[in-house]
Amino acid sequence: MKKVLITGANKSIGFETARQLLQKGYYVYLGCRDIQKGTDAVAQLHAEGLKEVEPLLIDVNNIDSIKAAREILGQKTEVLDVLINNAGVSGALPQTSLETDISVFRDVFETNFFGVVEVTQAFIDLLKFSPEPRIVNVTSGLGSLTLQSDPAWKYHQVKAAVYFPSKAALNAYSIVLAYDLRDLPFKVNVVDPGYTATDFNHHTGPGTVPDAAARVVKAATLGPDGPTGQFYSDDNAPETGISPW
């Protein structure tokens, strides 16, 4: 049974991703920074008959928490097949380039960028023991430099001086990560789940959580012939599914 760790998985897209992977026969470590919320989420999945799941306390903003989670997971399994870096924050809005306080930049980058780097580095040893390791970094269409600079893009007017650069940085890191792991059987990709109705945007998005999670699951379950170092986005590129960086 393949094993997956999903950060920020006690609600929304992360939770639905856990549900869909459980339905596909994966064992899920449901990452959460509040263990009670994680326990409640696991109880809901158990009530649905999805038993191969347990909560894992991990705060991606806290390196000690990340190290503790790695130690705990290492006591439970010698192999991790999939890492989904799903935890993310938007930061206080609006965000202008000249007026947003630098503390907002630091807080958002701590979760959306530095947290991903630290979690990936902490769990890479377990991933290397998998015959088909997968890393999925959940990004946003707003992280595309190409589209952000295109006046014809449908979301061109949506500018967030903190959130947008944090996801662009995540994308850049993912490109280098895929390159560094190119000689191993890793598939490293970023996925834009689309403009989805969640707490993240006060449920204003037109997309559904199940559809968004399905995009993440698709990248997490790529076969050996699947691509690596790609930016998946059905929202930005409905014909090809691959967004420009």
Structural commentary:
It is built from seven helices and seven strands, in the order βαβαβαβαβααβαβ. The protein is α/β, with parallel strands linked by helices. It has one domain (3-232): Rossmann fold. The protein has a seven-stranded parallel β-sheet, with helices on both faces. Helix 2 (35-47) links the parallel strand 2 (27-32) and strand 3 (53-57). Helix 1 (12-23) packs across helix 7. The N and C termini lie far apart (34 Å).
Brief write-up:
The protein is α/β, with parallel strands linked by helices and 245 residues long. It has seven helices and seven strands, in the order βαβαβαβαβααβαβ. It has a single domain, classed as 3-Layer(aba) Sandwich (Rossmann fold), CATH 3.40.50.
Keywords summarizing the entry:
seven-stranded parallel beta sheet; single chain; Rossmann fold; 13% strand; alpha/beta; 7 strands; globular; 40% helix; 245 residues
Give the uncertain stretches in residue-range form: none
| Euclidean distance between termini CA atoms | 34 Å
Largest sheet: 7 strands, parallel
pLDDT averaged residue by residue: 95
In CATH, the homologous superfamily goes by the name NAD(P)-binding Rossmann-like Domain
The top level CATH class name: Alpha Beta
Q: How many β strands by DSSP?
A: 7
Based on secondary structure, the structural category is alpha/beta
Number of helical stretches of at least 4 residues: 7
Beta-strand share of residues: 5-15%
Order of helices and strands: EHEHEHEHEHHEHE
| Global geometry | globular
- Give the total of domains: 1
Strand order of the largest sheet: 3-2-1-4-5-6-7
What CATH architecture would you give? Answer: 3-Layer(aba) Sandwich
Named CATH topology? Rossmann fold
Question: How much is the radius of gyration in Å?
Answer: 17 Å
Q: Residue share in helices?
A: 40-55%
